Amino acid sequence: MVENRPFAQFMAYLTLVIGVLVVAFPVYLAIMASTFDAATIINGNMPLVPGDQAGVNYPRALFYGGVHAREPVGGMMLNSMIMAMGIAIGKILISILSAYAVVYFKFPFRKTAFWIIFITLMLPVEVRIYPTYKIVADLGLLDTYTGLIMPLIASATGTLLFRQFFMTIPDELLEASKIDGAGAFRFFKDTLLPLSITTIAALFVIQFIYGWNQYLWPLLITTKSSMQTIVIGIKKMITTTDALTEWQIAMTTAVLAMVPPVLVVIFMQRLFVKGLVETEK
Amino acid sequence: MEKRAHFSGWTLPLLLILPQMAITVIFFYWPASQAIWQSFLREDAFGLSSEFVGFENYLALFEQPEYYRAMVTTIIFSTLVAFFSLSVALLLATQADKNIRGGHAFKTLLIWPYAVAPAIAGVLWIFMFHPTLGTLARPIRAAGIDWNPMLNGNHAMILLVLSATWKHISYNFLFFLAGLQAIPKSVIEAGAIDGAGPMRRFWTIVFPLLSPTTFFLLVVTVVYVFFETFGIIDAVTGGGPAGQTTTLVYKVYADGRLGGDLGGSAAQSVILMVIVIALTAIQFRYVERKVQY
Question: How far is CA B37 from the centre of its chain?
Answer without folding.
Answer: 27
